[in-house]
Amino acid sequence: MTEKIKVVSVLPDLLGTYGDSGNAIVASRRLALRGYEPELVTAVLGEAVPADGDFYLIGGGEDGPQAKAAQLLNADAALEAALDRGAALLAVCAGFQILGESFIGPDMNPTTGIGVFACKTHRFDGPRSVGELVTAPTPGIDGVPELTGYENHQGVTELLEGTIPLGMVLVGKGNNCGKRIDGAVSGKAIGTYMHGPVLARNPALCDYFLSLVVGKLEPLEDVRLERAHAKLYEERIKEAYKLR
Amino acid sequence: MKRRFLTLHVNAAITISRIASWWVRKLGMGDGAALPGRILLWLRPGAITELSRGLPAVLISGTNAKTTTTALAREALAGSFQVISNDTGANMESGLAYALTRCGGVCSGKALGIFEVDEAYLPLIGRQLETKIVALLNLSRDQLDRVSETRLTSAKWRAYFQANKDVKVVANCDDPLVVYAANGASNILWISAGINFFQDARSCPECGGEIHFTTSDWRCICGFERPLPDIEVFENEVEADGRRIKVDLALPGRCNVSNAAVALGICQVLGVDLASAVRRMSYVSEVAGRYRRLSVDGRTVRMLLSKNPAGWLEVLDIVRDDRSVVVAINAQVADGRDPSWLWDVPFEFLQGKEVVASGERAFDLSVRLHYAGVEHSVIKDPIDAVKSCVSSELSFVGNYTSFQELRKRIDSSQNPRLARLHRLGDRISL
Ligand SMILES: [Zn+2]
């Protein structure tokens, strides 16, 4: 079984400030370890985002580059086309914000997003949301335990009617919209405020994300890798509760 | 800093902060500058301006290599000036204040301040001193939970230069974010000090467009482009003032030749002979404990400090020929609370070496190393990690607090009296 899978890291030079490029590394490797043949494509500034990808990963970044990324992704509709075709998407922080209907640009005005998630992001007047974030995944995200990550943002993301969050916040702020929720799920698109990177912190979420396209996955046989993941996961959850 | 109703006489404040410094060092509670500096500023809020009156100041800032470049510049200039400097790496207001207690407001005509300054504090500190020269090294992602993102820092620097036109700038022309900031000044000396981490530099700070890089040049379609260097760095030579000078340093790595070039830029602005400046720089063999070789349990450990992706690219070059490397990652406030930057470091370069993941965040590092295909063991305690190595010579690479912690523990393990004092210090800092 060697199925070719295209993993696309979207504009990591604009939206990859917080180590989120690691998500593409983790996703590709976990496919390869199961016998798939992942091709990791890095779509940097100046290159078109390929429309024939299977997985799209987009990360966090600064205000200026965030607005630039939104402008580029709005101009070429590759991402929407791929999602319509059945591709999966993981969007983190600034990447999550621009995939909503609107976000606050560097000029402090609402800017049109890509509209993959039915949500709107404002700017929080209070202190920046910085620190460990733990959530309980929304029912329907099968077999995924509590999620752990690190948030660092100024956003308030309101989910519009009918949009479900990725998780209920147990520690931290998440969307910071007064409802103790983090992120959003829309079809095969997942949005979150979790850095870490989130797929390195939560291998179960990575496997769930991969299963959206390739179907149910067998557990990994790389015992040492999974043990390393388990140790990191347990430590982060435990430490986050201590901080609460 | 809160305003206080009563301020102590400046000499009394200095004496108290000096006593505090002595105890802080004895108890192993830090470098003996930051905390005493805070005490000084609390007792005497205007101390920085007051103590630096009449002292021309050179400030060195950037994400990486501040401490090393400051050490090289300090050594190079010590032949011509009476140099006052923050030599322990304490580079915020408190560290500056404590360093200034050495001149006590009565500086001689030959006195010169050479200070490394935290990138976020550069405008604030620049305004409090009689700043003559600012050297800008580089800007890249670091401690994002504390320091603002790089573009914001660059814009703040630029605004500072626009408002202080008499400040001369010595700047790295290879880093677009540095050039954007320096362009706010009217008197600039450009150094081709290089750039190794491009992730934060690809989008244009002027227009947001794409910057095109070639091996030795960069430009954006909007017209923002690399200025021509006044001082150019070659392999281990520097071309300045129309002549080539060989740079032979005791410090390892290509990065330090670039740091020396920036220090030479400062010397050139001050009219110091460059050949003798280079000679003096070669005396620098360690910088605040970095590059020092320590002995642990019969092993020689070379101490290296690296705290972000750009710094790691330099370190990977330095440890290229090492057989064993212990990497210790902490995530204290001084390190940045989020070590996800580990995923921006190409750890694949460590493949084939004996590698030990250590420090409080050894598990984050371990997962990263697995995905980089690096065989390793995990030993959280850095001394145990060093002792586990097969090689008798190894490099230890720590980020800020893990580096300081290992230094302190090695010192106290070799001196029982020191160990007792350090234990007392640990109890106090709790
Ligand atoms: Zn431009």
Q: What would you note in describing this structure?
A:
The complex is a heterodimer of chains A (244) and B (430). Chain A is α/β, with parallel strands linked by helices and 244 residues long. Chain A has one domain: Rossmann fold (3-Layer(aba) Sandwich), CATH 3.40.50.880. Helices cover 30% and strands 28% of the residues of chain A. Chain A is built from 7 helices and 14 strands. A 6-stranded mixed sheet of chain A has the order 2-1-3-4-14-13, with helices on both faces. In chain A, helix 1 packs across helix 6. Chain A is globular. With 430 residues, chain B is of the alpha/beta class. Chain B folds into 2 domains: 222 residues, Mur-like, catalytic domain (UDP-N-acetylmuramoyl-L-alanine:D-glutamate ligase); 137 residues, Alpha-Beta Complex (Protein-Tyrosine Phosphatase, Chain A), CATH 3.90.190. Chain B is 37% helix and 19% strand. Chain B has 15 helices and 17 strands. Chain B is globular, with a radius of gyration of 22 Å. At the A-B interface, helix 1, helix 2 and helix 7 of A face helix 7 and helix 12 of B. Zinc ion binds next to loops of chain B.
Low-confidence stretches of chain B: 1-5
Mean pLDDT of chain A: 94
Strand order of the largest sheet of chain B: 2-3-1-4-5-6-9-10-11
Which two chains touch over the largest interface?
A-B, 37 and 32 residues
CATH superfamily of chain A: Class I glutamine amidotransferase (GATase) domain
- Report the top-level CATH class of chain A: Alpha Beta
Number of helices of chain A: 7
Number of domains of chain B: 2
Summarize the structure.
The complex is a heterodimer of chains A (244) and B (430). Chain A is α/β, with parallel strands linked by helices and 244 residues long. Chain A is 30% helix and 28% strand.
